[in-house]
Amino acid sequence: MTTVASIQEQETPVTMLTAYDAPTAALADEAGIDVVLVGDSIGNAVFGYESTLPVTLDDMMRATTSVANAVDDALVVTDLPFLSYGVDRSESLENAGRLLKEAGAHAVKLESGPHTIELTEAMTRLGIPVMAHVGLTPQHVNSVGGYTRQGTTAEQAAEMLDLAKAHEEAGAFSLVIEHVPREVGAAASDELEIPAIGIGAGPETDGQVLVVDDAIGLSERIPPFAEAFGDVRGEMRQAIEQYRDAVESREFPADEHSHSEGLDI
Ligand code: KIV
Ligand code: NA
Hints:
Keywords: Coenzyme A biosynthesis, Cytoplasm, Magnesium, Metal-binding, Transferase. It comes from Halobellus rarus. Its EC number is 2.1.2.11. By secondary structure, this protein is an alpha/beta fold. It has a single domain (6-231), classed as Alpha-Beta Barrel (TIM Barrel), CATH 3.20.20. It has eleven helices and eight strands. The chain has an eight-stranded parallel beta barrel, surrounded by six helices. Helix 2 (22-30) crosses helix 4 and helix 8 (154-169) runs parallel beside helix 9 (182-191). The longest helix is centred in the last third of the chain and has 17 residues, at 232-248. The termini are far apart.
């Protein structure tokens, strides 16, 4: 069983992968992935939105339930979607609580800012473990103006590391650091006690996370820092085309798929 405590103690890099449905989560779990993240990247990967902003708490509740139903060993972490936290304090706590209490997550992830330090402390105190998220925070796409690399000056990097440390002090059990120069990823791993899990943050972080659609080769495009370890897109296309051809040529269904009662009709 992976827990918020065990990933802090493990010697090998923490493996983390997103999943949004039960079959994918079951495969990740069976493969020994440590942390299954129900990312709000479900907005792009599954719903076809241009960003994560339209994703609702209900969307995350349903996806988290599906993932939690399928996972036996991994730690299930769920993203709090845009504006489900940080607007109203008690609503933030209730929303985070629902992802554990009703949907079965073990922890929540929040895109970090100065406004999430106190929230992290309050959630942790209530028994809701919090994973922080610094660097590129896609819910801020409109204020940042794109999905560009973050922490590219010494001053910005120091500010990011300070924010990360403030969340560690507030009780965060781990953090994601996204799309930063590799030396910033390395510094986060060095300077923090809690595991810094990187995505586009270089090889020296305490773990790695990818969007599952990117990792298995299902996404149409992948970010430059990702890697497709398979060609699920090609496999799916081939299977769908073969199905279409078999129906059009009446090769499917064949005798073995068909049943007769010998009825005289
Ligand atoms: O939503 C997501 O998939 C994420 C990871 C990229 C860390 O937040
Ligand atoms: Na996310």
